[in-house]
Amino acid sequence: MTDLYTRIRDQPRDALDTIAKSLNVRASEPAMQTICARYMAQIALPAGARVLEIGCGNGATTKLIMQHVRPAQLVGIDPSCVFIDMAGETFADEPGVSFAIGDAAATGQADAFFDLVIAHTVYSHLVDPEGALAEARRVLRPGGQLVIFDGDFATITVALFDGDPLQSAVGAVMRHMMHAPYIMRRLPALVTAAGFSVQSVEPHGYVQTTSPDFLLTLLSRGTSAAAHAGEIGQELVDGFAQEARRRVANGTFYGAILFLSLAARKDGR
Ligand SMILES: C[S@@+](CC[C@H](N)C(=O)[O-])C[C@H]1O[C@@H](n2cnc3c(N)ncnc32)[C@H](O)[C@@H]1O
């Protein structure tokens, strides 16, 4: 298993700093902001609502949840104490927002306490999605909402033509950065089996051409991980990066991912 998010507690500080920077880049990109505004705007909560954010990382997406969902209280959990500290610092002046170390399958939160459980690009990294769904059901009040957003990562493309060698960098991303790249295709059945009623599954196209900063960091991290694993040499890592930058500079870069948001309600109102 090479997805480093599945071993986030073992990662050195410099790797966590790089990931945090990449999460901030992604959350601040107009394309992702538009997607978040669209899917989060559909979440309607009662006054005084409590939200549990699973896999909050350094709080990059927490800002968008606070902006668009506007809960009275938000608790973010993540297995990484480094990320939890970063998120805590960012939200130090917001009394309604707090963070705690926890796992999607063992959040440490009270039964039936939350109105919404939300996970943004977390399920593709989970080893035990069934355990995470059972835990989400436990902490939600009856009728509470579950919203899961993630990439259908098997759709990532940077290819400009059939057999484009740059596309093989995406293979490195899939092998080394996502434990479950197909999870969103399986999720409706898993969520239903866990005792939820699925309300919607919405597609969100993410296309980057002129400023593909997040995609460039994704390719760089994936190919570097492939080199670290001994699959390829640093020369090829550098070659992929140079080719991607060349395409950006001459206006030919194309990168796309289909993201999906799933909304469900806990059965047994
Ligand atoms: C791609 S990052 C997304 C972070 C954040 N949701 C965002 O959008 O910026 C995936 C996050 O999932 C967390 N994670 C990994 N395994 C987890 C688990 N078993 N339970 C909860 N979170 C987990 C990682 O530590 C990381 O912060």
Could you explain the architecture of this structure?
- This protein is an alpha/beta fold and 269 residues long.
- Strand 2, helix 4 and strand 3 form a beta-alpha-beta unit.
- The model has no long low-confidence stretch (mean pLDDT 95).
- Helices cover 42% and strands 22% of the residues.
- Strands 3-2-1-4-5-7-6 form a 7-stranded mixed sheet.
- It has a domain of 183 residues: Vaccinia Virus protein VP39 (Rossmann fold), CATH 3.40.50.
- Bound molecules: S-adenosylmethionine.
- The site of S-adenosylmethionine has 21 residues, from helix 1 and helix 3.
What's the number of helices? Answer: 9
Describe the sheet with the most strands: 7 strands, mixed
End-to-end separation in angstroms reads 39 Å
Count of beta strands:
7
Task: Give the proportion of residues in helices.
Answer: 40-55%
Report low-confidence residues grouped into runs of 5 or more: none
Helix and strand pattern = HHEHEHEEHEHHEHHE
Structural class: alpha/beta
**Distinct ligands, ions and cofactors found in the model:** S-adenosylmethionine
What is the topology, as strand order, of the major beta sheet? 3-2-1-4-5-7-6
What fraction of the residues are assigned to beta strands by DSSP?
15-25%
CATH architecture identity of the domain at 4-153 and 181-206 and 260-266 = 3-Layer(aba) Sandwich
Principal-axis shape equals globular
Rg from C-alpha positions? 18 Å
The name of the CATH superfamily of the domain at 4-153 and 181-206 and 260-266 reads: Vaccinia Virus protein VP39
Summarize model confidence as the mean pLDDT. 95
CATH fold field value of the domain at 4-153 and 181-206 and 260-266: Rossmann fold
CATH class membership of the domain at 4-153 and 181-206 and 260-266: Alpha Beta
